From TrEMBL:
Keywords assigned by UniProt, alphabetized: Transferase
An example Gene Ontology molecular-function term: transferase activity
Taxonomy of the source species: Archaea, Methanobacteriati, Methanobacteriota, Thermococci, Thermococcales
Keyword set includes Transferase: yes
Name listed for the protein in its UniProt record: N-acetyltransferase
Pfam families noted in UniProt: Hexapep (PF00132)
Length: 200
């Protein structure tokens, strides 16, 4: 007996691996070779392409398209109707198109209707704002939004924006979260990028 749930109106092709406790809702389509981890929630009208890898505890909201070449690590949130791409030079008539991979790292969140242009990495616990168009890498804990998306600050593990800078070491600027009290280390090169992009 399956230890996961697939709605009768979902389509799950042969060769898909689904982890314990995962739920796949109506009108979702999961293509062959895809791997979905434990305790995931795959919403209505989600499309998961061939050989896509989804980690554990991932929440994919309604209408999301996760195309071939995308890897999603554990604890990621994909907001309603956001989408990935996988071709930098799309033409309907191309015969030799190349899949360009995209990586979403542990704990990251991507807002509703955001578009992730292929070839980027979304860092650990980063936050991508609703409607953003991401064209370059997002650093760990980075907060990006806009079109094109710019680095506008940093967020805590809990998702709140970090405002209180409490010190630094050789490699990091250290913030304290005013909501949960955790200390978060931001790489100095990422903080310097923020200073350049915050007013763009």
């Amino acid at each position: 007996m399956a230890n996961f749930f697939v709605h009768p109106l979902a389509v799950v092709e042969e060769g898909v691996k689904i982890g314990e406790g995962t739920r796949i809702w109506h009108f979702a389509h999961v293509r062959k070779g895809a791997k979905i981890g434990k305790n995931c929630n795959i919403g209505k009208d989600v499309y998961i392409d061939v050989d896509v890898e989804i980690g554990n505890n991932v929440k994919i909201q309604n209408g999301v398209s996760v195309y071939h070449g995308v890897k999603v690590e554990d604890d990621v949130f994909l907001g309603p109707h956001m989408t990935f791409t996988n071709d930098l030079y799309p033409r309907a008539f191309n015969q030799d198109w190349e899949v360009v991979p995209t990586l979403v790292k542990k704990g990251a969140s991507i807002g509703a209707h955001a578009t992730i242009v292929c070839g980027v990495t979304i860092g650990e616990y980063a936050m991508v704002g609703a409607g953003a168009v991401v064209t370059k890498d997002v650093p760990p804990f980075g907060l990006v939004y806009g079109n094109p998306a710019r680095l506008k600050g940093f967020v805590c593990y809990c998702g709140r924006k970090l405002k209180e800078k409490i010190g630094e070491d050789e490699e990091h600027v250290i913030f304290k979260c005013s909501h949960c009290g955790r200390d978060v280390k931001i790489r100095k090169e990422d903080y310097e990028r923020y200073l350049k992009e915050k007013d763009l």
